[in-house]
Specification:
The chain is an alpha/beta fold. The protein is built from eleven helices and seven strands. Helix 6 packs across helix 11.
Length: 254
């Protein structure tokens, strides 16, 4: 289950890639802007300021996230991005840190390109940190005998989760788009006792939380803390640097 509070704990850091992504979308007066995977709506609610004349449509698979987004006044709907079909007036499609959860997302974005009118935009970013220590130590711990039965299906194995920018550029060019694709390494300065643990609790640890009861979840987290501390040491000034690579794609349908 997605937790809006856990996700929003690092709202400023998580929001920066959304801003960087939209900075490359050169859409003028779009009729409809769709945010697929809107989460708690804190970023979606900024879209009317960017495009005041647009209808803003939002979707998320989590009822908890949709409820939080609606409380912000966002017109959010519960639904799987794989089932979404663009309305005829859709001019901009945004998906921020969502498509890594969808194994067939490469085919999905090509399908959107075929369904959208010429001149429409598709913009998405996905994390490319599945081989980072933050994920590797979770995988290693999940494989230990005391956890392997419950967590044997932990999904983030790094292989084929996302493509490099070149892969997305090629696929969407073949689908009839003009593509701008790039990658960025953010170095987030985090504070607090266990900031990397708290960060991944809102994202990468969600499948672990879903698989464990409360006591086991607390135990797993306690065993994870020293492993993360070894990989991401806290400096004397209290800052923990958390490198995080992301891939960005902005495509315009020709």
């Amino acid at each position: 289950m997605w937790s809006p509070d856990a996700y929003l704990a690092f709202a400023d850091h998580r929001g920066r890639p959304f801003v960087d992504l939209l900075a490359r979308v050169d859409a003028h007066d779009p009729r409809r802007v769709v945010d697929l995977g809107c989460g708690p709506g804190n970023l979606t609610e900024t879209l009317p300021s960017r495009w005041p004349g647009a209808v803003v449509e939002a979707w998320d698979s989590s009822p908890e996230m949709v409820h939080a987004a609606r409380e912000r006044g966002v017109d959010a709907h519960v639904g799987d991005v794989r089932d979404w079909v663009p309305a005829a007036d859709t001019d901009v499609v945004i998906s921020n840190a969502v498509l890594q959860w969808v194994p067939e997302h490469r085919e999905l974005v090509s399908r959107w390109a075929a369904q959208l009118a010429p001149g429409s935009w598709i913009a998405f970013q996905v994390p490319d940190n599945f081989d980072a220590p933050s994920h590797r130590v979770v995988r290693d711990l999940a494989r230990r005998p005391q956890w392997s039965d419950a967590l044997g299906d932990y999904p983030f194995h790094g292989e084929d989760m996302v493509d490099p920018p070149l892969g997305y550029a090629g696929g969407l060019t073949d689908a009839g788009c003009t593509v701008d694709a790039w990658e960025t390494m953010y170095v987030h300065p985090l504070t607090g006792a266990n900031p990397v643990l708290e960060w991944i609790t809102g994202t990468a640890l969600r499948p672990v939380r879903d698989a464990l009861d409360d006591a086991a979840w607390d135990q797993f987290r306690s065993e994870l803390i020293p492993l993360l501390d070894a990989e991401y040491p806290r400096r004397a000034d209290g800052i923990t640097f958390f490198p995080f690579r992301r891939i960005f794609v902005v495509a315009r349908v020709r």
